[in-house]
Structures are given as C-alpha cells and as structure tokens.
Amino acid sequence: MDFRVLLLAISAITVGLVELVVGGILPTIADDLDISIATAGQLITIFALVYAIAGPVLLSLTAKFERKQLFIITLAIFFAGNVMTVLSPNFAIMMTARVITAASAALVIVLALTITARIAHPSKRAKALGYIYMGVSSSLVLGVPIGIVITNAFGWRTVFIGIAVLTIGSILLISKFFEKIPAGEVQPLSEQLKALANKKIIFAHLATMFMLAGHYTVYAYFTPFLETTMHLAPSWISVFYFLFGIAAVGGGAFGGSLASRLGSKKSILIILAAFSVSLFILPVSTSFMPVFIVVMMAWGALSWALAPAQQDYIIQTDPASSDIHQSFNNSALQVGIALGSGIGGIAFSHTGSVTSMPAVGGSIVIIAFVCAAISLSMAVRTRRSRQNPLPHANERLH
C-alpha cells in the first residue's frame, strides 16, 4: 500500500474527529457556555448541514487549484476553526467556528478520496479508498468516547486543542511526502445535479437520510440518555461509547458480508427493519444492564451496516453516475445527522425526557424503510420492462 494513502487516511481521521465528538460532551459544553442541552445539540446540526452542502460545492469551485496546495490550505483553515473553538467565549462564536470546521472538513475528505483514487495503483484503488472510509467511520464512532475521557480529565476545550495539534501534524506530513498534484477534471455542479433525475437513486438517498436521522435522534443525546436511564457515572459512559464504537466499526464488515450472501437489495430492507426494532426496544432494555449492552451493540453495529449494501445498490442501479451519487449519498448522510440531532433537540425540549427519543428515532427509520422499498420496487419494474419492453403491444396483437 502506498504510504501516502495512509497519510491521507490520518488526515481523514483528524478532520472526522471534530464532527460528533461534541455529542458525548454536550452537557459539559452546555454548562460552560450557559445554554441548554438542546441548544448545544445544534452544534452537531449546523456542522452536518454545512458539511453536506460544502463538499460538492467547494470541490467544483476549487477545481482548477493544484491539489497538494489546496489540501494544505484547507487543513490550515480547519486548524484555525479549531483554535476558534478552543477560544470560544460564547455559543455564537462556537457556532461560527463549527461552520468553518465543517466546510473545511468536507473539502479535506473529498480531496483525500480524489487524491487517493489518482495516486493508488488501479488494482489497489478500491482497497486504498477503503482505508479513507475506514478512517472516517472510525473517527466518527470512536471520537466520542475518546472525547469523553479527555473532557473528564482535562476539560472539553482540550479535545479541540488535541485535534488542532493533530492537524498541524497532518500539514507537516503532507508537505514533506507529497509532490505537486495537478488539478484533474471535476464535473461542474450543474452536471452533478442532473444525475439526481434518477428517481430510484433519489429514494435510495432519502433512505440513507432518514436512517441516519432516526439514528442521531437518539445518538446525539446518548449521554443524557445514559445518565437518566442507567444513572451511569462519566467514566462508565465513556466505556459504553467505546463498546458502541467497536460494534459500529464491526457493523460495516457485517453489512458487507450480509450483502454478499443475500444481495444488497434484501440486505437493505433487513438492516433497516432490524435497526428500527433495536431503537424501539432500547428503553425497555435499560432495566437490566447485560440486556441493554447487547441491544446497544446491536444498534451500534446496524448503524453502519447499511453503508456497504447501499453503496453496492447505487453502483448497480446507475453505474455511469455512481461517483456523483456516492458524493450525494454522503451528503444525504450528513443531512440525516443534522435532521436527527435537530429532531432530538425538539423532542427533548417538548417532552423534557430522553426516554421518548428511541421511539421517535425508530419511527423515522420506518420512513427510511418505506423509501428503500419504493426505490427497490422501481428497480424491479425497470428490470422487468427491459426484459419485456413491449408487453402492451404484444397484448394488442393477440
């Protein structure tokens, strides 16, 4: 494996840490900035919304820039955003810092993927891209428990100091080991948007969005959920987050294996159905910790199990535009995170209780299941029409 791919993966891990680490330390941030937990949760919402929009837009706007220089500049902006976060005296400044880090993180991830695709040998390209995706997913699920441990020991601002230091390391490594990378061809944003005319893919993206929305309705507020229902101390909460993260990382492998055995279409429906059930039974399982741990880890594994089957389905459905749709699916994922954390905040504000959130999240996942079923039924009808293109004409002849 090209050593440079590992450096890009390290950069992906670094920028990925900043998105959801806030979720595990919401109460601490809320107390420090003198805001409610629901308001603090919007730090996740704004990040995800900006990230979703910024990726394809910034990639198109910077299409003519030399890639190495652009990558370093973007990392530098990301560093500045984290410094602003550390120094934030109030919620407004921190929200501004989240916008800066979200936009720069989105471009860093897209650049890491496109640069990897260019420098990796064609026979090893898929595996190389897998390292980048593994870095992103690992940072998203394991960053939360790491953030909790650091926050409990040194304070929440130390978390972002650490991310800023890691960013400097990434800048130095990229500067030393990478040669100049000429700008390649990037489709204009208008051409990318035309690919959304495929209704089957639209419903697939909606399934991703609602699935993540249901997930983050609960996960964005998992710390207060554990405090309220399980009465756990901060040290134990970090343990539970680690268990969840391990299950989530393993869930990607499980989802890929399931799709290989049963096919991506069946796997999508099975995973979404099981995911919804796991959320509905989560509050019931809190009365007995061993059962809760099993249910929680099943929830964690299923939260990332959809991705391999969904990506495979998208490629099968529209191979010519699969790269564009991969980008949009990633944006749909981020919109889902924003939507879910926002819905969770509203539910928390109105009910004053976190115990109702799993039922809300499970209901949203049912919407994802319906969207997936619609997409899959469209795909079946399209395949049948291709196999028998003139059924009505044949009927008229008889």
Describe the structure.
With 398 residues, this protein is an all-alpha fold. It is 84% helix and 0% strand. Helix 9 (199-219) runs parallel beside helix 14.
Main structural class: mainly alpha
In terms of DSSP E residues, the strand content is under 5%
Described by the principal axes of the CA atoms, the overall outline is globular
Assembly state:
single chain
The CATH architecture of the largest domain can be named as Up-down Bundle
Q: What can be said about the biggest beta sheet?
A: none
In short:
With 398 residues, the protein is mainly α. It has helices at residues 3-24, 26-33, 37-61, 67-87, 91-119, 125-154, 156-177, 189-194, 199-219, 222-229, 234-262, 264-281, 289-317, 322-351, 357-387, 391-397. Helix 3 (37-61) packs antiparallel against helix 14 (322-351), helix 9 runs antiparallel to helix 15 (357-387) and helix 11 runs antiparallel to helix 12.
Summary keywords:
398 residues, Growth Hormone, Chain: A, mainly alpha
Q: What's the topology here?
A:
Elements lengths: L2 H22 L1 H8 L3 H25 L5 H21 L3 H29 L5 H30 L1 H22 L11 H6 L4 H21 L2 H8 L4 H29 L1 H18 L7 H29 L4 H30 L5 H31 L3 H7 L1
Helix pairs in contact: 1-3, 1-5, 1-6, 1-7, 2-3, 3-5, 3-14, 4-5, 4-7, 5-6, 6-7, 6-11, 9-13, 9-14, 9-15, 11-12, 11-13, 12-13, 12-15, 13-14
